[in-house]
Design goal:
Length: 153
């Protein structure tokens, strides 16, 4: 995405995991299990390291399952069958195990967003004075962790 651009030496991406878990507690207080969604890419491995570094600062009430080797269809199926009390946390959904880049694939995004019955949301950034959840999507998506919540359908 930055290929051919001048004046760019790198891209920094930070996720607000503390804010994300505050949002989970607010929206889904009965959550006890987190499905952490990533993939085998370098960026996803880096996000997982950042997430694991943040874990000691997060509430110790959750169990975590990592889901990283999936096809687009498998991920959509997995999200659609999450049991009550489970939230899916997307660290990185850019490429599946078949090499399909789904970052700008509108049909994949729509299927994933509708598989679980509630909007994908993100916590506000620390500089914003808002409350509650927001749904947001950008081409870069660089300053937030996506949140998928599940509940009664």
């Amino acid at each position: 995405m930055i290929a051919g651009q001048s004046g760019i030496t790198g891209v920094a991406e930070e996720s607000d995991f503390a804010g994300t878990f505050q949002l989970i507690q607010s929206l889904k207080p009965d959550t006890t299990r987190i499905l952490v969604i990533g993939n085998p890419s370098d960026s996803s491995r880096e996000k997982r390291r950042s997430f694991e570094d943040a874990l000691p600062k997060l509430p110790n009430r959750y169990t975590f399952e990592y889901y990283e080797d999936w096809t687009d269809a498998e991920l959509i199926q997995r999200v659609s069958t999450l049991p009550d009390g489970t939230v899916g946390l997307i660290l990185d959904v850019t490429v599946d195990v078949n090499g399909h880049y789904n970052y700008r694939d509108a049909s994949f995004t729509h299927a994933l967003a509708t598989a679980h019955g509630c909007p994908s949301s993100s916590p506000p950034s620390p500089r914003e004075k808002t409350t509650g959840a927001r749904s947001r999507g950008t081409a870069w998506g660089a300053d937030w962790s996506s949140l998928i919540c599940t509940g009664p359908r």
